Amino acid sequence: MYEKTFPNKRFKLTLEFLQKHIPTSETILDLGVENPFSKIMKDAGYSVSNTSGEDLDLNQSALQNSNAQVVTALEIFEHLLNPFTVLKEIKAEKLIISIPMRLWFSAAYRSKTDMWDRHYHEFEDWQLDWLLEKTGWKIIDSKKWTNPVKQLGLRPFLRRFTNRYYIVYAEKIK
Question: pTM score, two decimals?
């Protein structure tokens, strides 16, 4: 249904994963300001609110004050210095988190013009799994996928078969 309106494969696969695990009757707190994917979630029938752009490393009040049943953290944890604290402060019982995975053939992304648009963490899958386990989350499902680009060269060739994105559905351990 949405396939032709998605700007990329990542949005399509992320929505499919969300729909597999989260019914539209549950409320979502999406970490980060409103973005193209939070609009896609709303268009798909989800009730979504976003954090307001505060630095989540320093201020977790949005997490502490939210009554949402689900938190989505879609490609935000790589920008945080302290994802451990953020994960510990989530009150919701369900979490969907996606990250760009660390690529052995490419350095972590770093914008030269925007100091906030940088990846402090680019995880390997086991590192995110361990972080979730240490902060009281049980992984129920996960998926990885590639992100091929239409360019010539060694790195574009490697991107055709090297997983770039990792998404996890986890529930809080009681």
Answer: 0.84
